[in-house]
Amino acid sequence: MKIRAAVLEEFGKPLVVQTVDLAEPRAGEALVRIEACGVCHTDLYTASGADPTGYTACVLGHEGAGVVERVGDGVTSLVPGDHVITLFAPECGECLHCRSPRTNRCIAIREQQGLGYLPDGTSRLSRAGEPLRHFMGTSTFAEYAVLPAIALAKISPEAPLDGASIFACGLSTGLGAAMFTAKVEEGSTVAVFGCGLVGLGAVAGARLQGAERIIAVDLAEGRLAMARAHGATDTMLAGEDVVQAIRDLTGGYGADYTFEATGNVGVMRQAVEAAREAWGLATMIGVAGKGELLEVIPRFLITGRRVTGSSFGGVKGRTQVPLLVDRWLAGEIDVASMLSHRLPLEGVNEAFVLMERQDGIRTILEMR
Ligand SMILES: NC(=O)c1ccc[n+]([C@@H]2O[C@H](COP(=O)([O-])OP(=O)(O)OC[C@H]3O[C@@H](n4cnc5c(N)ncnc54)[C@H](O)[C@@H]3O)[C@@H](O)[C@H]2O)c1
Ligand SMILES: [Zn+2]
Ligand SMILES: [Zn+2]
Predict the structure, then answer these.
(1) Do 264 and 352 have their domain in common?
(2) Which residues touch 82 (CB under 8 Å, ≥6 apart)?
(3) What are phi and psi of 6, to 5 degrees?
(4) Ligand 1 test: best mutation among 171, 203, 287, most atoms within 8 Å of CB?
């Protein structure tokens, strides 16, 4: 079929929205009519050429939500009409990692996905007979996409698909980091560095876990106001003295749990140092630049702080994303406040400009 899609033709150049060909789903795959797609930093990171694993030409986009149109042979977990969220982190349910409750790092299709192909090593995307590669196994800056069924989470049909889209990456990443990676305990103290979509998700996740005190840190007052709306009890402007300020607010020790959601390695260090002596857990979520290192003074670890990282919030996509969506539908997460701008697919480059200006939390592309 012919579809409209945003193609990364050349690094550092605007994406080109054009008509491309999308083949029918093969065994184990599904065709999804994409309704909405958030524009995330990773799309821009790859488009800019900064990502060393990036490639052209491909259809970008990974924060998608839509409706299943058709399924390929052998797909029993989805039927046409199902509402789904696309998963750049799939869940096959059978691999070594999927069988462990400790991680969401499914290894079933990783290799081909990283190269830009579906699990059988081919692409469903093409133009003029030449293959065009997929991106993150999703390619959702498009009217339709073909994905492996293990990369689709079936959600409640009650969930509006515009809001559902941000559960495909940023929001679930933040929520999950607090709920599944760090497993914040009731009554604990939490500090979140960076209050974009990911950090706000971590604030909301800590609140849902019953944290007593949630300290949010950002460079922008507007973002701190949003953090308060999502559950932060204290806020502070970023700076060199925030580690001491967090200790001062937590009886001199630091927070039980800290989260880094900026991608700045200097802030990551602050997150480690603001974690409490004896048992503080610092969770790195932000993606650092190529070659950058996190500096940690070993004494901070000897005295009991722990450092971990979180990919897609540790969320097992097919089983846990639908549960997060249900908590939104139950009124426990204010998703509407995170959807800042709505643009058609043609506005994808404008969405990148808005992101660079930090104008709004998330821009949503609406495909029709
Ligand atoms: N681990 C994952 O699976 C995963 C998934 C999605 C995004 N990410 C990463 O998470 C990070 C955050 O994503 P986002 O969409 O929320 O980004 P964003 O740009 O919307 O938000 C980042 C926030 O950090 C703030 N900030 C910048 N410098 C700061 C400082 N020195 N101290 C405190 N705050 C500071 C900014 O003001 C901004 O509000 C990015 O690095 C992104 O690439 C990781
Ligand atoms: Zn993303
Ligand atoms: Zn798996």
Answers:
(1) no
(2) 67, 68, 154, 157
(3) -95, 115
(4) 287
Got the DSSP string for 245-303? HHHHHTTTS-BSEEEE-S--HHHHHHHHHTBPTTT-EEEE-SPPPTT------HHHHHT
Q: Return the ligand number nearest the Cα of 99.
A: 3
Can you tell me which atom of ligand 1 is nearest the CA of 361?
20
Residues 280 and 181 in one domain: yes
- How many domains does one find in the chain? 2
Which of the following is catalytic: 35, 169, 195, 235? Answer: 169
Residues with CB under 6 A from ligand 1: 41-42, 169-170, 173, 193-199, 217-220, 223, 238, 261-264, 267, 285-287, 310-312
* 301 band by pLDDT with thresholds 50, 70 and 90: very high
Query: Region 308-322: what's the mean pLDDT?
Result: 98
Q: Quick: pLDDT tens for 247-276.
A: 999 999 999 999 999 999 999 999 999 999
What lies within 8 Å, CB to CB, of 215 at 6+ separation is 189, 190, 191, 192, 232, 233, 234, 235, 236, 246, 249, 250, 255
How do residues 9-25 score in pLDDT, each as one tens digit? Answer: 999 999 999 999 999 99
User: For 155-178, what is each residue's pLDDT tens digit?
Assistant: 999 999 999 999 999 999 999 999
Q: What is the pLDDT of residue 123?
A: 98
The answer to whether 326 and 333 have CB atoms below 8 angstroms apart is no
What is the span of the domain harbouring residue 305? 174-310
**Residues 191 and 156 occupy one common structural domain:** no
Residues 99, 8 within the same domain: yes
Residues 135 and 280 in one domain: no
pTM of the model: 0.98
Return the bridge partners of 257, or none.
190, 281
Per-residue confidence (pLDDT) for residue 194, from 0 to 100: 98
pLDDT of residue 346: 98
Same domain, 281 and 344: no
* Average pLDDT value for residue range 98-125: 97
Judgement on whether residues 155 and 9 belong to the same structural domain of the protein = yes
